[in-house]
Amino acid sequence: MHSTGYLFYSGASGGFGITSAKAEDSVTLSLDGYKVSTFLLKSNKENNLVLPLLVKKASQPEKRLMSLARDIKPAELAKFSVGGETYSSLRENDYMEAAKFPTIDFAVNTDKASYSNIRRFINMGSTVPPDAVRIEEMLNYFALEYEQPEAGQDFSVRTSLSECPWRPANQLFYVKLSARKLDMTQVPPSNLVFLIDVSGSMDMPNRLPLLKTAFKLMVNNLRPIDTISIVVYGGTVGVWLQPTSGVEKEKINKSIEELSPGGSTAGESGILAAYRLAESTFIPNGNNRVVLATDGDFNVGQTSEEALERMIVQQRQKGIYLTCLGVGMGNYKDSKLEVLAKKGNGNFAYLDNEKEAEKVLVKELTQTMYSVADDALLHVSFHPANVKNYRLIGFDNKFSALSAEGDGLLEGGEVGSGHTLMAIFELTPAEKFDSSAALAKIELSYKHPNDSIRQKLIREVKDSRIQSFQTLPYTYRMAAGITLFGSVLKESRFVKPANLQDVLTIINPISNENDLVQQELIALVEKAKKIYYKGKASKLKPNLFW
Question: With b meaning 16 or more CB within 10 Å and e meaning fewer, what string describes 338-361?
């Protein structure tokens, strides 16, 4: 509302309650998929307002950002979107001058697909495409020491500041969030629609058979109050299993086992059918979700991607979210699944083996399926008195979203129950660095599921004491090692001349020999050394940092 500057959110049905001291007042309305419009409201009459649909050409899709420095002007944004080394459609975040752009905003999510996809490439003896490396998702994959939030809080916030191992003159600033764990006895009933790709391209051991195993593992955790449906798409699109109570596990498992591949892939038709079914069985205040499982090869029946994404956004606003599970290799469309999941305010994971399926759909089921926060954004403001430049590691934007017009949109993510997220900044300290002075202000903004009211959690980092990297808790050192691993795979210009041996130098001394995930990480780095440095052993210089 222009007279007051107040921001109002509609209820689930679109209703507003707005008071004004004026007989006439002007407002600006915005809604995903529609044009932002300004109207004059008159208090002596009923005001019927119509928002025009936002029609885009296929060649001009909506530009979605993962992170954005606040107050950056279009001309400066254009400058940041060109130049420098780049190897993919993703562009690494650059150093930002804290005096000019003290605040950066970025989306929080629980996606983990990048790490398992990287693992697949390395286990195949292949180098990893740089655009497949998303460092924030690599960090999401690991259990980084969960910390219970205080009573009545949705999140705990912990920070730490240390030396930077790959650039000793700089510092690493860690921001760690842990979401509260839902009491599963109090979790509302679930309405889950499995949307399973049974097209001919899924006829491989690591595709449909793997999905069958994955979903049967998940079915074992269903409660009588949960409802499961299955929609398939391939040669035809249809409801394979009508809505069924979670108590009928034998019936559900039999239905899953009888799935067989064949035909083309009418992906959009399948998604439409799944959402129609989810709407018909919608549970008010429940966990309503479509779970799409596919290799992503939508090659038949494709309408415009804008229409599909707009429909997913509209369903999200109704309270039906989307989780995407990717399988297979070769035609696995990682980027498409990522976009669909983000539009559906959900998450996505890549299943490369049965162990990963069990991890995602059994051990971490609550993080995958039950959200604590929606549309979550983290805002970090640095104090220029202590920070000269900062660089957010990961949360990289696509080149297509970094336009000269500066019209990219920052969209928050979904955070699941009990999830721990780590964000890491590389800082260049100010010339007159004062360790007793404030370093930064952290603000987390989000909404509760099925609620339009925005929540805020604010923390001040009141001192800037630097810890030796060697004395940091192992969680932060492990996070730095994982970050360096991803940066080297991306061939990042920001960590040169560090290499994969330096990754091992960080993680080997602190790894837990009983932690299978950590031991697998060490084995992956060793395999990657053989792939990347074959015939180049002289480049490896152990103990670069110390």
Answer: bbbbbbbbbbbbbbbbeebbbbbb
Q: CB–CB of 369/287 below 8 Å?
A: yes
Asked whether the CA dihedral 305, 308, 310, 313 is positive or negative, the reply is negative
Q: How far apart are CA 103 and CA 85, in angstroms?
A: 25
Residue with tokens 């991890």: 359
Residue reference for tokens 């990048």: 114
194: nearest Cα among 305, 357, 322, 364: 322
Q: What pLDDT does residue 457 have? A: 94
**Start-to-end C-alpha separation, the chain:** 57
Residues in the chain: 546
- What pLDDT was estimated at residue 266? 66
| pLDDT (tens digit per residue) in 53-71 | 776 544 444 556 777 777 7
**Residue spans of alpha helices (H) in 7-126:** 74-80, 113-123
d(CA 334, CA 328) in angstroms, rounded, equals 11
Strand pairing category for 64-65 and 397-398? unpaired
Element (DSSP H or E) covering residue 156? strand 155-163
Say what the pLDDT of residue 279 is: 92
pLDDT at residue 18, rounded to an integer: 76
Helix (H, G, I), strand (E, B) or coil at 413: strand
H helical segments located in 34-191: 74-80, 113-123, 135-141
Q: What's the pLDDT at 254?
A: 93
Location of structure tokens 């779970």: 291
- Tokens 């008195």, located at residue: 385
- The closest alpha carbon to 464, from 376, 382, 355, belongs to 382
* Residue 503 · residue 485 · CB < 8 Å: yes
For residues 322 and 192, is the Cβ–Cβ distance under 8 A? Answer: no
- C-alpha to C-alpha distance for 338 and 320, rounded to whole angstroms: 17
* Residue numbers in the chain where pLDDT is lower than 70: 5, 9-16, 55-64, 72-89, 265-266, 296-306, 329-336, 345-346, 365-368, 399-409, 534-546
Separation CA 356–CA 350 (nearest Å): 8
Nearest partner of 105 among 328, 500, 410, 385, judged by Cα: 410
pTM of structure: 0.71
- Three state DSSP letters for 221-267: CCCCCCEEEEEEECCCEEEEEEEEECCCHHHHHHHHHCCCCCCCCCH
Interior angle at CA 323, CA 187 and CA 292, nearest 5? 125
